[in-house]
């Protein structure tokens, strides 16, 4: 769901910029004085920035489309494509977004032109990098932490509400390998983490708090339903299982 929302947002911003409008979105240019803005081709700046964002929009669309079945080649390609996209955009901003001649037809002094060109170039790149950084944080970071406090188990996961499970509500705990997490019905899905409501053929509808690369899972059967949680690796997940089993016994 989050990826689809981000795809829609990026598509909207890309469309506005590609139309030659939305100069106020370009950092550096939007704070420049009227005299400084007259030295640039605003439509070109917008379209170049919009083109760079359109590439990211396509990546987000593919990631949302594949969902939890995202191929590894796409996961590996995302950061590389983003870096190339930013580099190409900066080059085009420097070449195509050159300062325009002044109203009197005289050329702007070389030093001033270079400074202003750099301002727009780095400002536009900074705006894009900021958005991409937020996206990267959501997709590539996050932690799952499990702890026992008194008479309850607490599962803390990044970007999704924590879960507290009273020990008295746990009916069984098992360790499963090669688990197919199934499809996400309402939750968070990144390259690193999966969290929220999922559904598969083995557990039906259940809650999942997991590192996506690890296929092992500690399955808790509770009075409220099934909950799956894991650690970064299969070995750490098995250790988590032993710890929870001892606490519940």
Major β-sheet strand ordering: 4-8-9-7-6-5
Mean pLDDT: 81
Q: How large is the radius of gyration?
A: 25 Å
Beta-strand content = 15-25%
| Beta-strand segment tally | 9
Shape: elongated
Structural class: alpha+beta
Terminus-to-terminus distance: 38 Å
- Main sheet, how many strands, which sense, barrel? 6 strands, mixed
Our count of helices gives: 6
Total domains: 2
The share of residues in helices is: 40-55%
Order of helices and strands: HHHHHEEEEEEEEEH
Would you identify the regions where 5 or more consecutive residues have pLDDT less than 50? 103-109
InterPro entries: Bacterial_PH-related, UCP037672
Protein name: DUF3784 domain-containing protein
Transmembrane segments: 6-27, 48-66, 72-93, 122-140
Keywords: Membrane, Transmembrane, Transmembrane helix
Brief sketch in words of this structure:
This protein has 6 helices and 9 strands; from the N terminus they run H-H-H-H-H-E-E-E-E-E-E-E-E-E-H. By secondary structure, it is of the alpha+beta class.
Molecular structure report:
This is DUF3784 domain-containing protein. By secondary structure, the chain is α+β, with helices and mostly antiparallel strands. The chain has two domains: 2-140, no CATH class; 144-248, PH-domain like (Roll), CATH 2.30.29. The chain has six helices and nine strands. It has helices at 2-18, 34-37, 42-66, 72-96, 110-140, 234-248; strands at 144-149, 152-157, 163-166, 170-176, 183-189, 193-200, 204-211, 217-222, 225-229. The strands form two sheets. A six-stranded mixed sheet has the order 4-8-9-7-6-5. Strands 1-2-3 form a three-stranded antiparallel sheet, with helices on one face. A hairpin with a 2-residue loop joins strand 1 (144-149) and strand 2. The longest helix is centred in the middle third of the chain and has 31 residues, at 110-140. Residues 103-109 have low confidence and may be disordered.
